[in-house]
Design brief:
53% of the residues lie in helices and 16% in strands. It is α+β, with helices and mostly antiparallel strands and 412 residues long.
Length: 412
Amino acid sequence: MKKIHNFSKAFLGCAIFSALVIVLGIAGIFVKGINFGIDFEPGLLEEVRVAPTAIEVNYAGPATVTLDVSATGIDVVISGTGAENETRTFTFGQNPTVSAIAESLNTVDGITARVRSSESADSYSLFTNSAATSRLSSDVSFRLYAQSEELKVTIDDIRATMSGLNVSVKELGTEDNRSFQIRAKATDESATNQKLQEEITSALQNKFGSDNVAIIKTDFVGSTFSKSLMLKSILLAVLTILLIWVYATVRFHWDFALGAVVALIHDFLIMFTFISWFQIEFSSTTLAAVLTIFGYSINATVVILDRVRANLKNTEAKKFTEVLDKSLSETLSRSIITTITTLFASVSLWVFTDGAIETFAIVLTIGLISGCYSSMFISSGFIALVRRHWEPGENAERVRPRKETAKNLENK
Protein backbone atom coordinates (compact mmCIF):
# COMPACT_ATOMS: atom_id res chain seq x y z
CA MET A 1 0.00 0.00 0.00
CA LYS A 2 1.29 3.42 -0.96
CA LYS A 3 2.09 5.92 1.74
CA ILE A 4 -0.60 8.56 2.12
CA HIS A 5 0.81 12.11 2.05
CA ASN A 6 -1.07 14.98 3.69
CA PHE A 7 -1.41 17.14 0.58
CA SER A 8 -4.44 18.86 2.06
CA LYS A 9 -2.28 20.64 4.63
CA ALA A 10 -0.59 22.53 1.77
CA PHE A 11 -3.80 23.65 0.01
CA LEU A 12 -4.12 26.96 1.89
CA GLY A 13 -0.43 27.84 1.60
CA CYS A 14 -0.40 27.06 -2.12
CA ALA A 15 -3.53 29.15 -2.68
CA ILE A 16 -1.93 32.13 -0.93
CA PHE A 17 1.33 31.69 -2.87
CA SER A 18 -0.49 31.48 -6.20
CA ALA A 19 -2.60 34.53 -5.38
CA LEU A 20 0.54 36.55 -4.64
CA VAL A 21 2.18 35.46 -7.92
CA ILE A 22 -0.98 36.31 -9.89
CA VAL A 23 -1.24 39.75 -8.23
CA LEU A 24 2.42 40.29 -9.14
CA GLY A 25 1.58 39.34 -12.73
CA ILE A 26 -1.34 41.78 -12.89
CA ALA A 27 0.95 44.49 -11.54
CA GLY A 28 3.51 43.53 -14.21
CA ILE A 29 0.93 44.08 -16.96
CA PHE A 30 0.32 47.64 -15.69
CA VAL A 31 3.99 48.39 -14.98
CA LYS A 32 5.74 46.77 -17.97
CA GLY A 33 2.86 45.90 -20.28
CA ILE A 34 2.74 42.93 -22.61
CA ASN A 35 5.35 42.59 -25.33
CA PHE A 36 2.94 41.91 -28.20
CA GLY A 37 4.47 40.40 -31.32
CA ILE A 38 3.88 41.67 -34.81
CA ASP A 39 0.86 39.32 -35.06
CA PHE A 40 -1.09 41.31 -32.48
CA GLU A 41 0.21 44.82 -32.96
CA PRO A 42 0.38 46.81 -36.22
CA GLY A 43 3.86 47.55 -37.40
CA LEU A 44 6.96 46.28 -39.14
CA LEU A 45 9.17 43.32 -38.23
CA GLU A 46 12.48 43.35 -40.08
CA GLU A 47 15.53 41.12 -39.79
CA VAL A 48 18.78 42.78 -40.87
CA ARG A 49 22.46 41.92 -40.98
CA VAL A 50 25.37 44.31 -41.06
CA ALA A 51 28.43 43.00 -42.91
CA PRO A 52 30.80 44.15 -45.66
CA THR A 53 30.15 43.38 -49.31
CA ALA A 54 32.20 40.28 -50.13
CA ILE A 55 31.45 39.99 -53.88
CA GLU A 56 30.07 42.48 -56.39
CA VAL A 57 28.43 40.92 -59.46
CA ASN A 58 27.46 42.56 -62.77
CA TYR A 59 26.24 41.22 -66.11
CA ALA A 60 26.67 42.69 -69.58
CA GLY A 61 24.88 40.77 -72.30
CA PRO A 62 21.58 40.24 -74.14
CA ALA A 63 20.20 37.46 -71.92
CA THR A 64 18.19 37.68 -68.73
CA VAL A 65 20.34 36.42 -65.87
CA THR A 66 19.25 36.01 -62.25
CA LEU A 67 21.30 34.88 -59.29
CA ASP A 68 19.72 32.91 -56.45
CA VAL A 69 21.55 32.05 -53.21
CA SER A 70 20.48 28.97 -51.21
CA ALA A 71 21.91 27.26 -48.14
CA THR A 72 24.09 25.00 -50.28
CA GLY A 73 25.16 27.14 -53.20
CA ILE A 74 24.45 29.73 -55.90
CA ASP A 75 22.21 29.16 -58.93
CA VAL A 76 22.74 31.29 -62.04
CA VAL A 77 19.61 31.14 -64.22
CA ILE A 78 20.14 32.21 -67.84
CA SER A 79 17.15 32.77 -70.14
CA GLY A 80 15.82 35.08 -72.82
CA THR A 81 16.28 35.79 -76.53
CA GLY A 82 19.60 34.75 -78.02
CA ALA A 83 20.58 32.62 -75.03
CA GLU A 84 20.41 28.95 -74.21
CA ASN A 85 18.05 28.52 -71.29
CA GLU A 86 20.10 26.91 -68.56
CA THR A 87 20.83 26.94 -64.84
CA ARG A 88 24.38 26.73 -63.62
CA THR A 89 24.91 25.76 -59.99
CA PHE A 90 28.02 26.53 -57.97
CA THR A 91 27.93 24.68 -54.66
CA PHE A 92 29.67 25.97 -51.56
CA GLY A 93 31.15 22.52 -51.00
CA GLN A 94 33.06 22.70 -54.29
CA ASN A 95 33.84 26.41 -53.79
CA PRO A 96 34.75 26.66 -50.10
CA THR A 97 35.89 30.31 -50.05
CA VAL A 98 34.55 33.65 -51.23
CA SER A 99 37.33 33.99 -53.80
CA ALA A 100 36.54 30.52 -55.19
CA ILE A 101 32.88 31.46 -55.66
CA ALA A 102 33.90 34.65 -57.46
CA GLU A 103 36.19 32.72 -59.81
CA SER A 104 33.39 30.27 -60.63
CA LEU A 105 30.92 33.08 -61.35
CA ASN A 106 33.44 34.65 -63.74
CA THR A 107 33.29 31.52 -65.91
CA VAL A 108 29.75 32.47 -66.98
CA ASP A 109 29.79 34.58 -70.18
CA GLY A 110 28.96 38.22 -69.47
CA ILE A 111 29.26 37.98 -65.67
CA THR A 112 31.90 39.96 -63.83
CA ALA A 113 32.41 39.07 -60.16
CA ARG A 114 34.80 41.20 -58.11
CA VAL A 115 35.91 40.31 -54.60
CA ARG A 116 35.54 43.32 -52.34
CA SER A 117 36.50 41.77 -48.98
CA SER A 118 36.79 38.52 -47.01
CA GLU A 119 38.53 36.53 -49.77
CA SER A 120 39.27 33.58 -47.48
CA ALA A 121 35.89 33.64 -45.71
CA ASP A 122 33.76 30.49 -45.75
CA SER A 123 31.44 30.57 -48.75
CA TYR A 124 28.65 29.12 -46.60
CA SER A 125 28.54 32.48 -44.80
CA LEU A 126 27.44 34.34 -47.95
CA PHE A 127 24.01 35.98 -47.90
CA THR A 128 22.09 38.55 -49.93
CA ASN A 129 19.79 41.52 -49.50
CA SER A 130 16.19 40.34 -49.94
CA ALA A 131 15.14 43.90 -50.79
CA ALA A 132 17.39 43.94 -53.88
CA THR A 133 16.41 42.40 -57.20
CA SER A 134 18.10 39.13 -58.11
CA ARG A 135 18.30 40.08 -61.79
CA LEU A 136 21.83 40.99 -62.86
CA SER A 137 22.62 44.07 -64.92
CA SER A 138 25.58 46.17 -65.92
CA ASP A 139 24.29 49.29 -64.15
CA VAL A 140 23.48 48.02 -60.65
CA SER A 141 25.80 45.64 -58.82
CA PHE A 142 24.38 42.55 -57.14
CA ARG A 143 25.99 42.22 -53.72
CA LEU A 144 26.92 39.11 -51.79
CA TYR A 145 27.71 39.77 -48.14
CA ALA A 146 29.85 37.78 -45.69
CA GLN A 147 30.34 38.25 -41.95
CA SER A 148 33.91 39.24 -41.10
CA GLU A 149 36.06 40.82 -38.44
CA GLU A 150 36.26 43.98 -40.55
CA LEU A 151 32.79 45.07 -39.53
CA LYS A 152 31.73 43.58 -36.23
CA VAL A 153 28.47 45.10 -35.00
CA THR A 154 26.86 44.43 -31.62
CA ILE A 155 23.27 44.80 -30.49
CA ASP A 156 24.28 47.92 -28.54
CA ASP A 157 25.47 49.50 -31.80
CA ILE A 158 22.12 48.77 -33.46
CA ARG A 159 20.15 50.09 -30.47
CA ALA A 160 22.22 53.28 -30.44
CA THR A 161 21.53 53.73 -34.15
CA MET A 162 17.79 53.17 -33.63
CA SER A 163 17.59 55.41 -30.54
CA GLY A 164 15.62 58.10 -32.37
CA LEU A 165 12.98 55.64 -33.60
CA ASN A 166 10.18 53.86 -31.76
CA VAL A 167 11.61 50.37 -32.25
CA SER A 168 12.82 47.38 -30.24
CA VAL A 169 15.86 45.31 -31.20
CA LYS A 170 16.57 41.62 -30.57
CA GLU A 171 19.75 39.70 -31.40
CA LEU A 172 19.44 36.43 -33.33
CA GLY A 173 21.94 33.72 -34.22
CA THR A 174 25.51 33.24 -33.06
CA GLU A 175 28.54 35.52 -33.13
CA ASP A 176 29.61 34.10 -36.51
CA ASN A 177 26.11 34.28 -37.96
CA ARG A 178 24.54 37.24 -36.19
CA SER A 179 21.44 39.10 -37.33
CA PHE A 180 19.17 41.64 -35.65
CA GLN A 181 15.39 41.65 -35.45
CA ILE A 182 14.00 45.18 -35.47
CA ARG A 183 10.35 45.72 -34.60
CA ALA A 184 8.74 49.07 -35.29
CA LYS A 185 5.24 49.76 -34.01
CA ALA A 186 2.89 51.76 -36.20
CA THR A 187 1.95 54.77 -34.07
CA ASP A 188 -0.96 55.86 -36.30
CA GLU A 189 -3.02 54.67 -39.25
CA SER A 190 -0.90 56.70 -41.70
CA ALA A 191 2.26 54.74 -40.85
CA THR A 192 2.93 52.41 -43.76
CA ASN A 193 5.24 49.53 -44.37
CA GLN A 194 7.34 51.54 -46.80
CA LYS A 195 7.66 54.54 -44.49
CA LEU A 196 8.75 52.45 -41.49
CA GLN A 197 11.17 50.42 -43.59
CA GLU A 198 12.74 53.53 -45.11
CA GLU A 199 13.32 55.06 -41.68
CA ILE A 200 15.06 51.92 -40.38
CA THR A 201 17.13 51.31 -43.52
CA SER A 202 18.22 54.95 -43.78
CA ALA A 203 19.36 55.03 -40.16
CA LEU A 204 21.40 51.83 -40.60
CA GLN A 205 22.94 52.89 -43.91
CA ASN A 206 23.90 56.32 -42.57
CA LYS A 207 25.68 54.66 -39.66
CA PHE A 208 27.30 51.60 -41.27
CA GLY A 209 27.38 52.47 -44.98
CA SER A 210 24.88 51.77 -47.75
CA ASP A 211 26.95 48.81 -49.05
CA ASN A 212 27.06 47.06 -45.67
CA VAL A 213 23.39 46.62 -44.76
CA ALA A 214 21.37 43.61 -45.91
CA ILE A 215 17.67 43.03 -45.20
CA ILE A 216 17.06 39.33 -44.61
CA LYS A 217 13.27 39.37 -44.37
CA THR A 218 10.41 41.79 -43.72
CA ASP A 219 6.90 41.29 -42.32
CA PHE A 220 4.20 43.91 -41.87
CA VAL A 221 0.83 43.66 -40.13
CA GLY A 222 -1.87 46.29 -40.49
CA SER A 223 -3.99 47.54 -37.60
CA THR A 224 -7.21 45.94 -38.89
CA PHE A 225 -5.63 42.49 -39.12
CA SER A 226 -3.92 42.74 -35.71
CA LYS A 227 -7.17 43.76 -33.95
CA SER A 228 -9.10 40.96 -35.65
CA LEU A 229 -6.46 38.40 -34.67
CA MET A 230 -6.47 39.62 -31.07
CA LEU A 231 -10.26 39.26 -30.77
CA LYS A 232 -10.19 35.80 -32.36
CA SER A 233 -7.41 34.69 -30.01
CA ILE A 234 -9.36 35.82 -26.93
CA LEU A 235 -12.48 34.08 -28.25
CA LEU A 236 -10.48 30.90 -28.92
CA ALA A 237 -9.09 30.82 -25.37
CA VAL A 238 -12.54 31.44 -23.81
CA LEU A 239 -14.21 28.77 -25.96
CA THR A 240 -11.46 26.29 -25.09
CA ILE A 241 -12.02 26.81 -21.36
CA LEU A 242 -15.81 26.64 -21.82
CA LEU A 243 -15.67 23.35 -23.74
CA ILE A 244 -13.33 21.86 -21.14
CA TRP A 245 -15.79 22.90 -18.40
CA VAL A 246 -18.68 21.24 -20.28
CA TYR A 247 -16.66 18.04 -20.74
CA ALA A 248 -15.62 17.91 -17.08
CA THR A 249 -19.20 18.60 -15.92
CA VAL A 250 -20.57 15.72 -18.01
CA ARG A 251 -17.85 13.30 -16.92
CA PHE A 252 -17.67 14.25 -13.24
CA HIS A 253 -19.62 16.72 -11.07
CA TRP A 254 -20.11 20.47 -11.33
CA ASP A 255 -17.65 21.22 -8.51
CA PHE A 256 -15.03 18.90 -10.04
CA ALA A 257 -15.49 20.68 -13.38
CA LEU A 258 -15.24 24.10 -11.79
CA GLY A 259 -12.07 23.04 -9.98
CA ALA A 260 -10.53 21.96 -13.30
CA VAL A 261 -11.42 25.32 -14.89
CA VAL A 262 -9.97 27.21 -11.91
CA ALA A 263 -6.71 25.30 -12.44
CA LEU A 264 -6.69 26.28 -16.14
CA ILE A 265 -7.28 29.95 -15.38
CA HIS A 266 -4.56 29.74 -12.73
CA ASP A 267 -2.08 28.36 -15.30
CA PHE A 268 -3.06 31.05 -17.80
CA LEU A 269 -2.43 33.83 -15.27
CA ILE A 270 0.85 32.29 -14.07
CA MET A 271 2.15 32.15 -17.65
CA PHE A 272 1.16 35.77 -18.20
CA THR A 273 3.02 36.75 -15.02
CA PHE A 274 6.26 35.53 -16.58
CA ILE A 275 5.34 36.89 -20.02
CA SER A 276 4.80 40.40 -18.62
CA TRP A 277 7.76 40.63 -16.22
CA PHE A 278 10.31 39.01 -18.53
CA GLN A 279 8.84 40.69 -21.62
CA ILE A 280 8.48 37.44 -23.51
CA GLU A 281 7.06 38.22 -26.93
CA PHE A 282 3.38 37.30 -27.11
CA SER A 283 2.75 36.09 -30.64
CA SER A 284 0.66 33.40 -32.32
CA THR A 285 3.42 30.94 -31.34
CA THR A 286 3.04 31.94 -27.68
CA LEU A 287 -0.72 31.50 -27.94
CA ALA A 288 -0.14 27.99 -29.31
CA ALA A 289 1.98 27.21 -26.23
CA VAL A 290 -0.78 28.50 -23.92
CA LEU A 291 -3.44 26.34 -25.61
CA THR A 292 -1.09 23.34 -25.49
CA ILE A 293 -0.82 23.80 -21.72
CA PHE A 294 -4.62 23.90 -21.47
CA GLY A 295 -4.72 20.42 -22.97
CA TYR A 296 -1.84 19.13 -20.83
CA SER A 297 -3.20 20.61 -17.59
CA ILE A 298 -6.75 19.31 -18.03
CA ASN A 299 -5.38 15.85 -18.82
CA ALA A 300 -3.34 15.81 -15.59
CA THR A 301 -6.35 17.12 -13.63
CA VAL A 302 -8.74 14.54 -15.12
CA VAL A 303 -6.45 11.68 -14.05
CA ILE A 304 -6.53 12.93 -10.45
CA LEU A 305 -10.30 13.61 -10.47
CA ASP A 306 -10.96 10.16 -11.89
CA ARG A 307 -9.04 8.62 -9.01
CA VAL A 308 -10.95 10.81 -6.52
CA ARG A 309 -14.26 9.61 -7.97
CA ALA A 310 -13.16 5.99 -7.70
CA ASN A 311 -11.95 6.42 -4.11
CA LEU A 312 -15.24 8.07 -3.10
CA LYS A 313 -16.95 4.78 -3.93
CA ASN A 314 -14.35 2.45 -2.46
CA THR A 315 -12.85 4.26 0.54
CA GLU A 316 -14.22 4.83 4.01
CA ALA A 317 -13.30 8.35 5.10
CA LYS A 318 -14.57 10.82 7.66
CA LYS A 319 -13.37 13.88 5.74
CA PHE A 320 -13.28 14.65 2.05
CA THR A 321 -9.64 15.76 2.37
CA GLU A 322 -8.74 12.18 3.31
CA VAL A 323 -10.08 11.03 -0.07
CA LEU A 324 -8.10 13.76 -1.79
CA ASP A 325 -4.90 12.87 0.06
CA LYS A 326 -5.22 9.23 -0.93
CA SER A 327 -6.00 10.05 -4.56
CA LEU A 328 -3.13 12.52 -4.87
CA SER A 329 -0.73 10.04 -3.24
CA GLU A 330 -1.76 7.31 -5.68
CA THR A 331 -1.26 9.57 -8.74
CA LEU A 332 1.84 11.39 -7.44
CA SER A 333 4.45 9.32 -9.31
CA ARG A 334 2.43 9.49 -12.52
CA SER A 335 2.08 13.29 -12.28
CA ILE A 336 5.77 13.88 -11.60
CA ILE A 337 7.14 11.39 -14.15
CA THR A 338 4.85 12.69 -16.92
CA THR A 339 5.87 16.29 -16.24
CA ILE A 340 9.60 15.56 -16.06
CA THR A 341 9.66 13.53 -19.30
CA THR A 342 7.75 16.29 -21.12
CA LEU A 343 10.13 18.88 -19.66
CA PHE A 344 13.04 17.05 -21.28
CA ALA A 345 11.63 18.00 -24.69
CA SER A 346 10.63 21.59 -23.83
CA VAL A 347 13.91 22.43 -22.09
CA SER A 348 15.88 20.96 -25.00
CA LEU A 349 13.97 23.22 -27.41
CA TRP A 350 14.62 26.15 -25.08
CA VAL A 351 18.38 25.52 -24.97
CA PHE A 352 19.09 24.47 -28.55
CA THR A 353 16.79 26.74 -30.58
CA ASP A 354 16.12 30.44 -30.94
CA GLY A 355 13.47 32.75 -32.31
CA ALA A 356 9.80 31.70 -32.21
CA ILE A 357 10.57 28.09 -31.24
CA GLU A 358 12.61 29.25 -28.24
CA THR A 359 9.72 31.47 -27.11
CA PHE A 360 7.31 28.54 -27.53
CA ALA A 361 9.60 26.34 -25.42
CA ILE A 362 9.97 28.92 -22.64
CA VAL A 363 6.20 29.39 -22.26
CA LEU A 364 5.65 25.64 -22.56
CA THR A 365 8.17 24.94 -19.78
CA ILE A 366 6.54 27.46 -17.45
CA GLY A 367 3.11 26.03 -18.24
CA LEU A 368 4.17 22.41 -17.68
CA ILE A 369 5.43 23.17 -14.17
CA SER A 370 2.38 25.30 -13.39
CA GLY A 371 0.02 22.65 -14.82
CA CYS A 372 1.43 19.88 -12.63
CA TYR A 373 1.30 22.13 -9.57
CA SER A 374 -2.25 23.39 -10.20
CA SER A 375 -3.64 19.91 -10.88
CA MET A 376 -2.36 18.68 -7.52
CA PHE A 377 -2.93 21.69 -5.27
CA ILE A 378 -5.13 24.38 -6.84
CA SER A 379 -7.85 22.23 -8.39
CA SER A 380 -7.92 19.83 -5.42
CA GLY A 381 -7.83 22.71 -2.95
CA PHE A 382 -10.80 24.38 -4.62
CA ILE A 383 -12.84 21.15 -4.57
CA ALA A 384 -11.92 20.61 -0.90
CA LEU A 385 -13.21 24.11 -0.15
CA VAL A 386 -16.51 23.48 -1.94
CA ARG A 387 -16.95 20.11 -0.17
CA ARG A 388 -15.79 21.26 3.26
CA HIS A 389 -19.18 20.16 4.70
CA TRP A 390 -19.07 16.80 2.96
CA GLU A 391 -20.74 13.94 4.83
CA PRO A 392 -19.48 10.36 4.41
CA GLY A 393 -22.96 8.83 4.76
CA GLU A 394 -23.56 8.10 1.08
CA ASN A 395 -20.06 6.74 0.74
CA ALA A 396 -20.48 4.53 3.79
CA GLU A 397 -23.74 3.09 2.41
CA ARG A 398 -21.94 2.09 -0.76
CA VAL A 399 -19.01 0.50 1.05
CA ARG A 400 -20.98 -1.31 3.77
CA PRO A 401 -23.03 -3.63 1.47
CA ARG A 402 -19.82 -4.88 -0.13
CA LYS A 403 -18.32 -5.66 3.29
CA GLU A 404 -21.51 -7.30 4.51
CA THR A 405 -21.74 -9.44 1.37
CA ALA A 406 -18.13 -10.52 1.76
CA LYS A 407 -18.72 -11.36 5.44
CA ASN A 408 -21.81 -13.44 4.61
CA LEU A 409 -19.89 -15.39 2.02
CA GLU A 410 -17.18 -16.15 4.57
CA ASN A 411 -19.78 -17.40 7.10
CA LYS A 412 -21.28 -19.72 4.53
